[in-house]
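User: Assemble these into one structure.

Assistant: Restating your components, then the assembled model:
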Amino acid sequence: MAGKKVLIVYAHQEPRSFNATLKNVAVEELSRQGCTVTVSDLYAMGFEPRATRSDITGALSNPESFSYGVEMHEAFKRRALTRDIAAEQKKVQEADLVIFQRKLALLSLTTGGVASMYTKAGDNGDFRYFLWPLQHGTLHFCGFKVLAPQISFAPEYSSKEERKAMVASWAQRLKSLWQEEPIQCSPPWYFGQ
Amino acid sequence: MAGKKVLIVYAHQEPRSFNATLKNVAVEELSRQGCTVTVSDLYAMGFEPRATRSDITGALSNPESFSYGVEMHEAFKRRALTRDIAAEQKKVQEADLVIFQRKLALLSLTTGGVASMYTKAGDNGDFRYFLWPLQHGTLHFCGFKVLAPQISFAPEYSSKEERKAMVASWAQRLKSLWQEEPIQCSPPWYFGQ
């Protein structure tokens, strides 16, 4: 939808990967719709994933006993977070839609195993089970409305044609993404009744 | 049990934290039993959590298109993993018991929220839900027999007496840890029938 801001949080190292293709398709389709698309390419940025006191500039509010949660809250209020964190927070705040594009995370993800392994009877259990901590515990908790995940199962074990079909289905979905209703992000969605 | 090797994987920054106390209690009790206890203190070691090509020394088997899984498997076979990873793998291999001591991970963990929030009807859902990806998807998948988790709920919001009781209950459990049967690590344990 023209004028919308989209942030794609992308975490894959190889520009020639299937993941990269899915990300590129999203950039192209959404830009074509007139959206402003920003990509946070975490590996390329060397984004620091460790949560440490280095995330805070200046003095700590309680240097005697370090509590990451308390210090981050204080630092957020006095704008004392490091520049890389503040920059990502700004992108999230400004975005109308955030797409997380990575292996085994959410919204748009690829799996190692085939679809049958991610069913209630499969070795990995229903794919919704592993979405719970991130999609519900993190995104929903932080106030996101969550759209249905886009799961591309086992590109590694799929034929070239199957991979093409997965990319096409993603591209097709993106065309009408703005008309989608968010999922009912509550336990029954994940675990049934 | 005398002669057993225990590895504690510990991830907390503050030596005066409740987490540190739980870790110290485990070191003391298990050493008293005659176990050899090793602690991998991930923050203190500055352990690198990013999975990148820097984990591999020497040439890649396919530099054209980097696949972390493939390259790590090859590097493992030809002993070309970086020293920090090889060292941790050796510790895990030699250990009879591995205790993961960190926030929101497994076996011995502390939570931010109180116990009622981690029930089926609570905001966070049953605490077993968030154990699924790590305890089942990672530990069980890698061949561990998994002991019941030790969950210390909301030490931040507990009284000094309550925290003492949590530490005491952990210390008490450690005394007979070697007689425990592993849990039945399968979907019913996590999600019921």
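Chain A touches chain B through 28 residues (CB under 8 Å).
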